[in-house]
């Protein structure tokens, strides 16, 4: 090995010009993975370091639509040194004729247990103080600006009038609720007594934050054993912001997998660079073998060189990725609503280094092995390429398995990882086949009569089908980058199409909640009498948890199905609601008062495995309600209208406090008036604009799509680097070709037209394959993951094909300048035989 290192280093003293594309490809791919991994690690570290402050305590016990009962509260206080109760719900903040949806946080005197609330003026006690009979409140600036409020102004929540005591700049426990759909208003719980917002059956959540010295693991086990069946939800500082962590982890995993697609594109450049490097070393390799060097020594020499260059590209990528994140961290921290701990984290860098080295060597070994397997005489004669030996192929198989296994291990989501890597492999295989087929077809057509009288086209096709054509490299490198963009484009176009198609005709204008039983009849009468209201639906509702199925824990039977993952909205009804479509079983008769019955959504029942006659236990407001499945219904959850997984007969829930909800479909021009009248007549009723809620979701998804498009753009940039490298490596061939054509009388315009035509043909081939990959990938994501209909979007596809043609055309024309300027005599004088 010492001799191999010596020879390798001496040969590399001439420079790394032949490896520029290889180094740049690895640098960009590794940098993308390192940057995404560093950001994810910084967010996770911030959430972990500030877990107790983010949560508002060491642990939190939550209940839905109720406060803790005496037994639960006694247990909480017995295991904590300090306790704070926080109630959360949505309501309307009303100022005169104007109103806006707000997320209300009702707190006690102990809040916040940890951390500090930052206000624009004064202290929290001063902001909450009652003045002129109006209790104080603090509000986020966004909401205050929306309503035109400044500290000292008044506004209403329900029936209670409040005074804005200060603007809230930040709160320590803001990340526990994730990314909300309404700005916050914080008041004291005691001030809500006359508001009518916390009446029995109202939709709210109660949270009990605890500061405790007890070990959290055993404490959680005890709490869930005692009160888990009563709907208790446990959170502690170890996973303070579960929704944020899950979102960051999944998005980070996806972006890293997109980065892997970029490395796969770069791998094509690695293979091309190594092949070009080894072709320039043919005489050196042949000379070493003639002088008696064994094949193992020669292999070691060039393996050391390739490994050194791969390590260099990977190291530069790590430095670029980590350095870029350190530079932009201040900007990111200002935009994120949760803490970020700035620093260099070894795990994402190790992960990126692993991907870079394994991917680089995986693509480099094949052309390296092909060149080294030739004998000295064959090398001097310029014989064709041989297949690598079995040992080389075995090493590549091991590297491939290591890459897949490492990706699964690091991402933590084997389905997403294998699906992404399988898709990349499939696209690469199709692109390879397209490149091979393009060369074969071009060679055949160039020799046929179809191109008689078209010398420019014949020359272009002959060059594409030639023995040293760059068609394969161009189609592979550009095609995969365009494929990623095509998938993103099809998904984005279909998503926007679904919104444009469904929202105006199917989604209601408003979703009203917390309608008290004595308000339901007049509320519905008001809506039905309004000529601008086209449709109104109403249902009595409370929330509960499906805890048992046929005597077994529901999660044990249904697994991680969303129906058993927390509490669900449950409707109660006597007569069968209008429009109900029973698919199996029978609805209970009107006035039924026997054992509890439940009608279950048919699709969800099939997914869980429920049958007619199955016995369920529902925990509602801390009470276990046994019911039997007596019917299945067709329920459509896609239109934002009324839909419940479970409807229970009314007698089974007799005495349980409930409220009604309603969806109202109205003409757009009447929505503002309808909202004002409702807020004035029933202040406790909260109206949620469905369109605004969907717009918030679209905004969040647009941010995700932007990140995905940026990642796909990075893949395309790597593809462009490989494309430029492939075109640049073909300059010597085009130089000789142009010189011969000039001698034969061809004009510069004819030669340039031939160069442009071949570039356009290769770009179109890459674009067409990418369109096909985009259609298949978009269909798979929309149909299998998002369960949305897929419609092929032609404009996105046209943009991909046009982009492929344009990029290859520009690259080809840029590198056409040297062959066009060259003097034939000077070039042909150096050509042998």
From TrEMBL:
Keywords: Cell membrane, Membrane, Transmembrane, Transmembrane helix. The keyword Acetylation does not apply. Residues 257-374, 711-816 form the ABC3 transporter permease C-terminal domain. This is Drug:proton antiporter. It comes from the Bacteria. It is a multi-pass membrane protein. Its main location: membrane. Residues 23-172 form the MacB-like periplasmic core domain. GO terms for cellular component: plasma membrane. The chain crosses the membrane at residues 254-278, 299-332, 352-372, 392-410, 416-439, 471-491, 709-735, 755-782, 794-820. It is found in: Cell membrane.
């Amino acid at each position: 090995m010492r001799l191999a290192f010596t020879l390798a280093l001496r040969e590399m003293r001439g420079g790394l010009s032949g490896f520029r594309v290889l180094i740049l490809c690895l640098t960009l791919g590794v940098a993308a993975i390192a940057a995404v991994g560093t950001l994810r690690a910084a967010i996770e570290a911030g959430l972990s370091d500030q877990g107790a402050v983010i949560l508002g305590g060491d642990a939190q016990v939550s209940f839905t639509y109720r406060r803790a009962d005496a037994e639960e509260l006694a247990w909480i206080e017995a295991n904590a040194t300090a306790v704070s109760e926080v109630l959360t719900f949505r309501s309307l903040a009303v100022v005169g004729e104007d109103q806006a949806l707000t997320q209300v946080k009702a707190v006690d005197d102990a809040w916040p247990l940890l951390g500090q609330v930052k206000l624009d003026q004064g202290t929290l006690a001063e902001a909450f103080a009652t003045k002129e009979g109006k209790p104080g409140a603090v509000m986020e600036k966004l909401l205050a600006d929306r309503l035109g409020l400044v500290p000292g102004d008044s506004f209403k929540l329900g029936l209670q009038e409040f005074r804005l005591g200060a603007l809230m700049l930040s709160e320590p426990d803001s990340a526990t609720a994730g990314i909300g759909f309404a700005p916050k208003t914080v008041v004291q719980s005691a001030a809500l007594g006359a508001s009518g917002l916390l009446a029995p059956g109202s939709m709210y959540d109660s949270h009990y934050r605890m500061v405790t010295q007890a070990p959290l693991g055993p404490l959680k086990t005890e709490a869930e054993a005692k009160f888990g069946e009563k709907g208790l939800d446990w959170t502690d500082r170890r996973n303070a912001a579960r929704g944020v962590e899950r979102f960051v982890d999944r998005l980070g995993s996806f972006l890293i997998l997109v980065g892997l697609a970029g490395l796969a594109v770069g791998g094509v450049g690695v293979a091309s660079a190594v092949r070009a490097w080894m072709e320039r070393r043919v005489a050196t390799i042949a000379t070493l073998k003639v002088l008696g060097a064994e094949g193992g020594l020669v292999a070691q020499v060039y393996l050391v060189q390739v490994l050194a260059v791969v390590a260099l590209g990977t190291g530069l990528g790590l430095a670029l990725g980590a350095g870029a994140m350190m530079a932009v961290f201040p900007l990111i921290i200002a935009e994120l609503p949760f803490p970020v701990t700035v620093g260099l984290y070894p795990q994402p860098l190790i992960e990126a280094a692993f991907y870079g080295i394994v991917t680089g060597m995986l693509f480099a070994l094949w052309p390296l092995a092909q060149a080294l397997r030739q004998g000295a005489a064959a090398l001097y004669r310029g014989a064709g390429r041989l297949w690598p030996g079995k040992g080389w192929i075995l090493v590549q198989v091991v590297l491939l398995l290591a890459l897949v296994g490492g990706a699964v291990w690091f991402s933590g989501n084997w389905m997403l990882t294998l699906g992404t890597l399988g898709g990349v492999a499939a696209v690469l295989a199709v692109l390879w086949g397209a490149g091979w087929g393009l060369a074969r077809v071009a060679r055949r057509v160039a020799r046929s009569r179809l191109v008689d009288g078209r010398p420019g086209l014949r020359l272009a096709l002959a060059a594409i089908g030639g023995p040293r054509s760059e068609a394969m490299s161009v189609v592979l490198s550009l095609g995969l980058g365009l494929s990623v963009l095509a998938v993103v484009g099809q998904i984005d176009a279909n998503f926007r199409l679904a919104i444009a198609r469904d929202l105006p005709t199917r989604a209601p204008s408003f979703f009203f909640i917390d309608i008290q039983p004595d308000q339901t009849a007049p509320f519905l009468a008001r809506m039905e009498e309004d000529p601008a209201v086209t449709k109104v639906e109403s249902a009595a509702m409370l929330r509960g948890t499906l805890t048992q199925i046929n005597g077994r824990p529901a999660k044990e039977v249904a697994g991680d199905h969303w129906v058993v993952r927390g509490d669900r909205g449950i409707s109660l009804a006597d007569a069968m609601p209008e429009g109900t479509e029973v698919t199996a079983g029978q609805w209970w008769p009107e006035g039924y008062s026997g054992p509890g019955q439940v009608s279950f959504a048919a699709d969800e029942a099939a997914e869980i495995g429920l049958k007619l006659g199955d016995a369920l236990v529902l925990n509602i407001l801390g009470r276990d309600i046994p019911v039997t499945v007596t019917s299945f219904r067709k329920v459509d959850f896609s239109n934002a209208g009324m839909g419940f997984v479970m409807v229970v007969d009314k007698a089974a829930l007799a005495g349980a406090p409930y409220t009604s909800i309603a969806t109202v479909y109205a003409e757009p021009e009447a929505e503002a008036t309808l909202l004002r009248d409702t807020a004035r007549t029933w202040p406790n009723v909260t109206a949620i604009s469905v369109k605004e809620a969907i717009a918030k979701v679209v905004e969040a998804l647009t941010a995700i799509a932007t990140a995905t498009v940026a990642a796909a753009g990075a893949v395309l940039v790597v593809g462009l680097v490989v494309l430029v490298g492939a075109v640049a490596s073909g300059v010597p061939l085009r130089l000789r070709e142009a010189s011969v054509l000039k001698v034969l009388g061809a004009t510069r315009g004819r030669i340039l037209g031939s160069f442009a035509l071949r570039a356009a043909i290769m770009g179109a081939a890459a674009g067409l394959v990418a369109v096909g990959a985009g259609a298949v990938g978009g269909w798979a994501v929309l149909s299998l993951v998002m369960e949305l209909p897929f419609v092929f979007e032609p404009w996105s596809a046209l943009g991909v094909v046009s982009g492929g043609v344009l990029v290859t055309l520009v690259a080809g024309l840029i590198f056409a300048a040297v062959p066009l300027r060259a003097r034939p005599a000077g070039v042909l004088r150096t050509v042998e035989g």
